[in-house]
Design goal:
Keywords: Hydrolase, Lipid degradation, Lipid metabolism, Signal. Helix content is about 35%, strand content about 10%. It has ten helices and eight strands. The relative contact order is 0.15.
């Protein structure tokens, strides 16, 4: 299969797995403190999160997303809680690193005590992007609008912002929307222009968050899309990643590094911009599990998702419309898997990714 077709297919998988409109669900929101590996920094620090399903901890609608449907949340907190995983996601681990509770999802800000907002707000919505994607959910610009409105309402002070950190995890769904809209008609010919447009707007948004008063900002690079299980299952039976797809990820990350460096050079305030290298963190986590897999019967194949549909027409969380019977299977050791579903890491996967980027996080707390 030619490269452009593979890219389009992969990004389509990325989109349909994160798109809130392809699932339905129930349950309630949870916030928590991770008990292990905390870095007890200044407890006045606040975390503001802007992103998609890799960072969402409960904003996506209960009746419009698989993150509120069993078996999501099976590892933590034991039932669906709005996270696209069996347990904790990237936001939770970064909050733990800061020594604070995971920030309250924006959607739940009015239903919790004001004291619960002391750790910040999570504005991330699954399926969203830097630009508008093919779903009706707040994109990055709108998420920042929400943030600005809360500042105008004096929910957070200038002092609060001086000690705050922003986490930005977006862009994959922008590529998915682009390829779907073009109908896979030679999508590769202007991929460079599309990438530049996405990254340019991403950096504009980073600057806006900085101008609103957040001085420390961490932005994620794109993961190796060629290693997503939805791709590896078709082309290599979960054995190897697609190099052509990974090269598309590397190109995005290269442009991102260039543009962030340019931003650093023109920023007059004392600010810190850190790129969190999810690309190499994913590869490292996958490689480590591959190395140990041969010596253990409990480790899952890192390229194979723990939760899968019983056939191609079903996905993780699918149920029979008439009987309600589960149309998915869950691996025997969810806590030893790398990926939970076709796109999203498991809690174990995110823990491994977090361990790989932890050194970069230190730059945000200096």
């Amino acid at each position: 299969m030619e490269q452009t077709t593979i890219v389009a297919f992969c990004l389509f998988l990325f989109y349909i797995t994160t798109c809130p409109q392809v699932h339905s669900a129930i349950s309630s929101d949870h916030r928590h403190r991770l008990g292990q590996g905390q870095h007890h920094h200044d407890r006045s620090v606040k975390l503001f999160v802007f992103g998609d399903s890799y960072a969402d901890t409960g904003n996506s609608g209960k009746f419009a997303t698989g993150s509120w449907k069993a078996p999501y949340g099976i590892t933590f907190p034991g039932k669906p809680a709005g996270r696209f995983s069996d347990g904790r996601v990237l936001t939770d681990y970064i909050a733990s690193f800061l020594g604070i509770r995971s920030p309250v999802p924006y959607k739940w800000r009015k239903s919790v005590k004001k004291s619960k907002l002391v750790n910040g707000i999570n504005f991330a919505y699954g399926g969203t992007g830097v630009f508008q994607t093919l779903i009706s959910a707040p994109n990055m610009t709108t998420q920042i609008d929400f943030f600005q409105q809360l500042l105008e309402e004096k929910l957070y002070t200038k002092s609060d912002l001086d000690s705050s950190i922003a986490l930005i995890s977006l862009a994959g769904n922008d590529y998915a929307a682009y390829f779907l809209k073009t109908g896979n008609q030679s999508p590769g010919k202007d991929l460079a222009a599309v990438t530049t447009s996405i990254v340019n707007q991403l950096v504009v948004n980073i600057k806006r968050i900085n101008d609103l008063g957040v001085r420390k900002i961490g932005v994620t690079a794109i993961e190796p899309m060629g290693c997503l299980p939805g791709v590896t299952s078709i082309f290599t039976s979960y054995q190897n990643c697609s190099e052509s797809l990974n090269s598309a990820s590397r190109f995005h990350n290269q442009i991102l590094h260039q543009k962030v460096e340019e931003l650093k050079n023109v920023t007059t305030t004392k600010s810190t911009f850190v790129i969190l290298d999810l690309y190499n963190a994913f590869l490292s986590a996958i490689q480590q599990q591959k190395l140990h897999q041969g010596n253990s019967t409990t480790l899952e194949n890192p390229l194979k998702p723990c939760c899968v549909g019983v056939s191609s027409e079903y996905s993780c969380g699918s149920v029979d419309e008439r009987s309600g019977a589960a149309k998915y299977t869950v691996c025997s050791n969810p806590e030893r898997s790398m990926f939970w579903d076709k796109v999203h890491p498991s809690q174990n996967g995110w823990r491994a990714v977090y361990s790989a980027i932890k050194s970069s996080l230190h730059q945000l707390v200096i």
